[in-house]
Amino acid sequence: MSLFSLDHVTRVYGRRTVLEIPKLDIEGNRIHALLGPNGAGKTTLLNILGFLEPPNSGTIHFRSQPVRFVEAELQHLRRSAVLVDQHPILFSTTVYKNLEFGLKIRGITPDKRRRIIEENLDLVGMGSFTHYPAHRLSGGETQRVALARALALSPEVLLCDEPTSSVDVENQNLIITILKRINEMKKISVLFTTHDRSQAARLAHHTIVLNQGRLAPTMYENIFRGVLKSDPSGRPRCVIQDKIELAVPEAQIIENRETVSVFIDPEKIVPQHPLKNPGTANQLQGRVVQIVEENGKVRIVIDAGVWIALLISKKSYQVSKFMVGETNGLIIPPEAIHIM
Fold it and tell me: Which of 117, 92, 115, 81 is nearest to 102 (CA)?
């Protein structure tokens, strides 16, 4: 069942449309990454999904129920979807009292509050900081306490805006582990924004790519430096990154240019396992380094001397039998190669 369903959702600031999504379904009980550059609309989408700001047009369903952005209904919805900001602000008191505040407002008894607080601080590895002054925490510790504070409210959805962007490497790894644990142990859906494709691939079950406010199947991948040349028979070839030689269509050759940019369309690359004719032009093999679901398809990255991404249907993926760490093959048809 879909957790969120968006239909023709837009968000406009002044005269600028910052979000325009024709259709998007987000599955429950999963970890989803919102991936894209600065200004892509990630935070705006997160705020809409957290019921903090309304879209200018379109409809949103949460748990199959239509969402009306009227204050009387939003208070209940905001208890289901809790947002952890990129730079969370804690009260100038103890860690314990930071978590206790929201529970007090909800009328939770003192004994139950204590159990909830201890459980969630332990979950994020901050159990020994219960009575520590919150304003003395490091950036990574503050982020982990903010996660615990959100979890104490028992949300259905945890929304995290760039949860690892302002913390050190050690805390980045801890936060990634914590988000996985939250999803696995508490069955809470997690949506987080990031610029980092590798982080999205490691953590998320599903990746949503945004670019200039719109859904995008890919993001500036499979673009290489290439050198045009001819083989001994005079047929055109392009050597990318000084490592891989590809046959290219005659029509793609640009006169009086030797060094070019090459785009390989990830949706036209064909997976092949096992590779039938290794060494044949445009048939490559390499180690699979990433597999991630992306907008209803499967994105596979293969290290074949350079990292090459292919985007295939779920059915093709099931047939391909590709697995991370294994050596597999791919075919790059000439029509997938674009000289720029």
Answer: 117
pTM across the whole model: 0.69
Beta bridge partners of 338: 263
DSSP annotation string for 137-183: --HHHHHHHHHHHHHTT--SEEEESSTTTTS-HHHHHHHHHHHHHHH
The SS3 call for residue 224 is strand
List the chain pLDDT tens, one digit each, 340 residues. Answer: 789 999 999 999 999 999 999 999 999 999 999 988 788 899 999 999 999 999 999 999 999 999 999 998 998 899 999 999 999 999 999 999 999 999 999 999 999 999 999 999 999 999 999 999 999 999 999 999 999 999 999 999 999 999 998 888 888 889 999 999 999 999 999 999 988 766 776 788 888 888 789 887 654 568 788 888 888 888 888 888 777 888 888 777 777 778 887 888 888 999 987 777 766 778 998 999 888 877 678 888 898 888 898 989 989 888 888 889 999 999 999 888 888 7
Q: Which of 310, 294, 136 is nearest to 207 (CA)?
A: 294
Helices (H) and strands (E) in the chain, counts: 8, 20
DSSP calls for 256-305: T--EEEEEE-TTS-EEESS-SSTTSTTEEEEEEEEEEEETTEEEEEEESS
* Rounded Cα gap, residues 19 and 96, in angstroms: 38
Strands in 259-264's sheet, in edge-to-edge order, are 244-247, 236-240, 223-230, 259-264, 337-339
8-state DSSP, 8: E
